[in-house]
Amino acid sequence: MLTKKIEKALNDQIVLEAYASNSYLAMASWCEGKGLRGATKFYYAQSDEERVHMLKLVKYVNASGGSANITAVKSPESSYKTLQETFEAALKQEKAVSQSINQLVELTFNDKDYTTHNFLQWYVQEQHEEEALFRSILDLFALADKDGKSLIIIDNEIMKIRNEVEAG
Prior knowledge:
79% of the residues lie in helices and 0% in strands. It is mainly α. It has a single domain (4-167), classed as Ferritin, core subunit, four-helix bundle (Ferritin), CATH 1.20.1260. Helix 1 packs antiparallel against helix 2 (37-63). The radius of gyration is 17 Å and the shape is elongated. The two termini are 34 Å apart.
């Protein structure tokens, strides 16, 4: 049985995961409008992943005797100047999610809710992988020339990265 404090924190995380899903959906839409097929595919898949993360939390809260609250989510940013800017925003977002997960893990440990603490370990590992993924993509931009000629190459590399992630 979840304490009210942990239930609220998990519900806050649900909102954060829903926002991340919407944010990636907005990034996918922006990329699609720019003809960036690789980044479009990447962000649509990221949006789906975040929704899965949210649903996993919803199901856990409900199965643990709590009540998952599905609330409105603020509108994400939907306009960007460059593709690189989308990935910088995405990394910033992933860092915020990681921080939230870490605070949640600390709360469950301090409250001796070891079942929820154990459940959250998957999210800890997932966030480590997500941050590393976005850093690796931003590394591509650092290597590229600044006049835009490398954008199509970067977009193709993003598609390859997404395919590798999906392959496992």
